[in-house]
Specification:
10-stranded antiparallel β-sheet; metal-binding; peroxidase; heme; EC 1.11.1.6; binds CIS-heme D hydroxychlorin gamma-spirolactone 17R, 18S; 26% helix
Length: 701
C-alpha cells in the first residue's frame, strides 16, 4: 500500500502574532502565497486583528462593517442537524458497471459494461447527535448518490438489511424512543435505555431488527468493512416496460470486520472519530475503499410464493434463495474539500430515482418518499438546495421552477411557463414522453383503509433464522448485548417484556439474557402470527463465517521499547505494509524509541494516547532496558492486557517478559501470542493476523 502523506502545506515557523494589523500594500497579494483577505463582498480587509475603536481604549464602533459582517456570518454558521443520522462522514467516488443490465432495467447507469458514474457516499450513525462518537452500538447509514446521466439516483440505505418498523407512520415514535429521553436529555447515541426498549418490546415487529442491532453488525470495525443494503424492495423497469423486483446490496471488498463491545466502549473514549479517521486515512494514502454492488432480482411469481411479504421491510430474502448478482464496483477515491459544504449539505432523497428504477408499495418506502424532501427544506433552508454543488446533477437540468431563497442560477428565457408560443432561447424546455421517468402502471384495488396486511404478521421467524445463522461466538455476543442494553433499563417490566418476546425467537437466547440479568424467565408473549419454526440457517448472515483471510486495510499497533532489535522492527513494518496493512509505531513518548543500532524510530503515537483498542492486532518489540521501562508504564500494561482480553493476536519480540508479567499475562499466553524474534516468526505472525481473532481464548485462566 502506498504511504503517501496528505500535504499539509504547514509553515513550521510562522511569524509570531503581534496583534498589529497587516496594513500597507494589500491589493493583489498579502505576502508569500496568501491571497488578499476580503469581506464577503470582495472589499480588501485592512486589519483582521483589531476592531474599529473610538480612541485607543474606547468603545467599538458600529461603523466597523468588516467586524460586523464577520460576526454576523459566524452567528449563522450552524444549520439544524439531521433529526436522525446526524453524525456522518462522506467521500466522493466512482461506480463502474460490470455488465449491461439493459434486459431488466433501462437505468442508464447499468447500460453497458465499463460505464462509469460519479458517486458521493455518506456513512452515519443513526441515534447520536452531530458531536457524538463513532463506535455507538447503532445501525450505520450507507447513503449513496449516483450522479447518473439521467438524473441523480439516491440509494439511501443502511448496513442492516431490515428495519425496526413496517409503516412510516411509526417512524417519529421510533426515533423519539431511541433519542435522548426528553425530560433529562440523555443518554446520548445509544439504545441502552428504558424508552427504546419500552417501544421495541411493545412493537414485536422490531424484534428481527433488534437481533441485528445486538449483533456485531452494529459495531463495525470500519465503514470500509461493512455491508450496505437498500432494504426495501424496488422495481427495475426495462425499455419494453417490463418490471422485476430488486433488492440492492453493497459488499465490501475487504470483507466484514467488527470490534467487540468492550473495545467499542474504549474506542469511543480514545478516538471518538475512529471511523471517520479510518476513512480519511485510507483515502489519503490511496488505499481506496471498494464495494461491489449486488442485486437480488425476482418476479411476481416469486413474490407471491415467498414465505414473507416482499413489501415488508422487517424481512429479507436469504441469499441462498435468491443469490446476489454482482453488477458493479464502487470506489471511494476522493476526500471532500470541506465537510460542511459536502457531508453536511448533501441531501439524500429516496424519491430520487432515474428512469428504469421505481418504487414498490412498501409502506415504509412510500413514507420515506415524503419525508426526505421535506426534511431538506428544514435543514438547508431553501427549495434551491438541489443547486448546491454536492447535490447538483451532473446532467443538464431544465425546468420552469423559478426564484426562491439563494437562487444560484440566472435562469435565462422570457417565458417561465408552459405552454408558451416563444421559440429559440425564449422557449424553454418541454417534456419528452417515452424518454421521461414513467411510473410503473401498478394495478391497485381494495378499500381505502388504515390496515396492516396479515402478510406482515410473522415477526419472529426471520429473527430466529438470523440467530441460528450465527456462529456460537456471535450468538454469545448477541446474548451479552441484550443483557447489557436491558440491564441499563431501570424498569424491570420492560426487561421482562423484551425477554418474553425473545422466547419466541430462541429459548436459549431468552434464557441466556434472563440469566445475565438474574431475572426469572417470563412467560413467552403471544405472537401475532404463529412463527414458521424451521427456517434453515442462512450462512450469508454471519460475519465470522464469511471473514476474509487478509490483513489488508487493517492496522497493527507496534509498541516499541528502547533497545528493540532494529532489524526485527524493519522486517515487521515491511511485511505488514506488503500485506496491505498499516503498521503504526507506538512508544512511551511520541518522540520515539532508540533501537539496537542507536537509530531513533519516531512514533506516531505515545502509548498513553494509543490504547490497543485502536488496532486490529498488536506487537511489542523491545530491548532489555525498554522492556522494564514499559512495564512501569500503566498505559503500556493496558495495551497488552486489553489486546489479550479482546482476543487479539499478539506478537512479542525481544525482552518483553517484564511487561508481560506486569500485564498479568505470564501464565496466560496462548497460541495467538507469537514470538517475533526471527524471520520465520515474522512470517507466522503475518499469516496469523490475517485470520480471525483468538475467539476460544480462555479469559478466566
Ligand atoms: Fe431515513 N431519514 N427514514 N431511513 N435515513 C433520514 O433525511 C425516514 C429509513 C437513512 O447521510 C432523514 O436527510 C423515515 C430506512 C439514511 O444524509 C429523514 C423513515 C433507512 C439517512 C429520514 C426512515 C433509512 C436517513 C433525516 C421511515 C434504510 C441519512 C435527515 C419510513 C433503508 C442520509 C435526512 C444522509 C435520513 C426519514 C427509515 C436510511 C428525516 C420517515 C428504512 C442512511 O428524512
Amino acid at each position: 500500500m502506498p504511504t503517501k502523506k496528505r500535504t499539509t502545506n504547514h509553515d513550521a515557523d510562522p511569524p509570531a502574532h503581534d496583534g498589529v494589523g497587516a496594513g500597507g500594500e494589500t491589493h493583489q497579494r498579502a505576502g508569500g502565497d496568501s491571497p488578499v483577505m476580503t469581506s464577503a463582498h470582495g472589499v480588501p480587509i485592512e486589519d483582521d486583528n483589531n476592531s474599529l475603536r473610538a480612541g485607543e481604549r474606547g468603545p467599538t464602533l458600529m461603523s466597523d462593517h468588516a467586524f460586523r459582517e464577520k460576526l454576523f456570518h459566524f452567528d449563522h454558521e450552524r444549520i439544524p442537524e439531521r433529526v436522525v443520522h446526524a453524525r456522518g462522514y462522506g467521500a466522493h467516488g466512482v461506480f463502474e458497471c460490470h455488465e449491461s443490465l439493459a434486459d431488466i432495467t433501462r437505468a442508464s447507469i447499468f447500460a453497458s459494461a465499463g460505464k462509469k458514474t460519479e458517486t458521493f457516499v455518506r456513512f452515519s450513525t443513526v441515534a447520536g447527535n452531530l458531536g457524538s462518537f463513532d463506535l455507538a452500538r447503532d445501525v450505520r447509514g450507507f447513503a449513496t448518490k449516483f450522479y447518473t446521466d439521467e438524473g441523480n439516483w439516491d440509494l439511501v440505505g443502511n448496513n442492516i438489511p431490515v428495519f425496526f418498523i413496517q409503516d412510516a407512520v411509526k417512524f417519529p415514535d421510533l426515533v423519539h424512543a431511541v433519542k435522548e429521553e426528553p425530560d433529562r436529555g440523555f443518554p446520548q447515541a445509544q439504545s441502552a435505555h428504558d424508552t427504546f426498549w419500552d417501544f421495541a418490546s411493545l412493537m414485536p415487529e422490531s424484534t428481527h431488527m433488534t437481533l441485528w442491532q445486538m449483533s456485531d453488525r452494529a459495531i463495525p470495525r470500519s465503514f470500509r468493512m461493512m455491508e450496505g443494503f437498500g432494504v426495501h424492495t424496488f422495481r427495475f423497469i426495462n425499455d419494453a416496460g417490463d418490471s422485476s423486483f430488486v433488492k440492492f446490496h453493497w459488499k465490501p471488498v475487504l470483507g466484514m470486520q467488527s470490534v467487540v463491545w468492550n473495545e467499542a466502549v474504549k474506542i469511543n473514549g480514545a478516538d471518538p472519530d475512529f471511523h471517520r479517521r479510518d476513512l480519511f486515512d485510507a483515502i489519503t494514502v490511496g488505499d481506496f475503499p471498494q464495494w461491489e454492488l449486488g442485486v437480488q432480482v425476482f418476479d411476481d411469481a416469486f413474490a407471491d410464493e415467498f414465505d414473507f411479504d416482499v413489501l415488508d421491510a422487517t424481512k429479507l430474502i436469504p441469499e441462498e434463495i435468491i443469490p446476489v448478482r454482482t453488477v458493479g464496483t464502487m470506489t471511494l477515491n476522493r476526500l471532500v474539500d470541506n465537510v460542511f459544504a459536502e457531508v453536511e449539505q448533501v441531501a439524500f432523497m429516496t424519491q430520487n430515482v432515474p428512469p428504469g428504477i421505481d418504487f414498490s408499495n412498501d409502506p415504509l418506502l412510500q413514507g420515506r418518499n415524503f419525508s426526505y424532501l421535506d426534511t431538506q427544506l428544514k435543514r438547508l433552508g431553501s427549495t434551491n438546495f438541489s443547486q448546491l454543488p454536492v447535490n447538483a446533477p451532473r446532467c443538464p437540468v431544465a425546468h420552469f421552477q423559478r426564484d426562491g431563497h439563494m437562487q444560484m442560477s440566472p435562469q435565462p428565457g422570457r417565458a417561465a411557463y408552459e405552454p408558451n408560443s416563444f421559440s429559440g432561447e425564449y422557449r424553454g424546455p418541454r417534456e419528452v414522453g417515452a424518454q421521461g421517468q414513467q411510473p410503473f402502471p401498478d394495478e391497485v384495488e381494495g378499500q381505502t383503509r388504515r390496515v396492516r396486511s396479515a402478510s406482515f404478521a410473522d415477526h419472529y421467524s426471520q429473527a430466529r433464522q438470523f440467530y441460528v445463522s450465527q456462529t456460537p461466538v456471535e450468538q454469545e455476543h448477541i446474548v451479552l448485548a441484550y443483557t447489557f442494553e436491558l440491564g441499563k433499563c431501570e424498569i424491570p417490566a420492560i426487561r421482562s417484556r423484551m425477554i418474553a418476546n425473545l422466547r419466541n425467537v430462541d429459548e436459549d437466547l431468552a434464557a441466556g439474557v434472563a440469566a445475565g440479568l438474574r431475572m426469572p424467565l417470563p412467560e413467552a408473549s403471544v405472537p401475532a402470527a404463529e412463527p414458521i419454526r424451521d427456517l434453515p440457517p442462512s450462512p450469508a448472515l454471519s460475519i465470522l463465517a464469511n471473514a476474509k483471510e487478509t490483513f489488508a486495510g487493517r492496522k497493527l499497533g507496534l509498541l516499541v521499547g528502547d533497545g528493540a532489535d532494529a532489524a526485527a522492527v524493519k522486517r515487521l513494518r515491511k511485511a505488514v505494509t506488503k500485506a496491505g496493512g498499516i503498521c503504526e509505531v507506538v512508544a512511551k513518548a511520541v518522540g520515539g524509541a532508540t533501537l539496537s543500532d542507536d537509530s531513533l524510530l519516531e512514533a506516531t503515537q505515545a502509548v498513553a494516547g494509543a490504547p490497543s483498542v485502536l488496532y486490529d492486532a498488536i506487537a511489542v518489540l523491545t530491548g532489555p532496558d525498554g522492556g522494564a521501562v514499559l512495564a512501569d508504564e500503566p498505559a503500556a500494561r493496558d495495551f497488552l492486557t486489553d489486546a489479550f482480553n479482546h482476543y487479539k493476536v499478539i506478537g512479542l519480540g525481544g525482552a518483553t517478559d517484564a511487561l508481560v508479567a506486569a500485564a498479568g499475562l505470564s501464565d496466560k499466553l496462548d497460541a495467538a501470542c507469537l514470538g517475533l524474534d526471527t524471520a520465520k516468526d515474522n512470517t507466522a505472525f503475518l499469516s496469523r493476523i490475517a485470520g480471525p481473532r483468538q475467539w476460544d481464548r480462555d479469559l478466566d485462566a
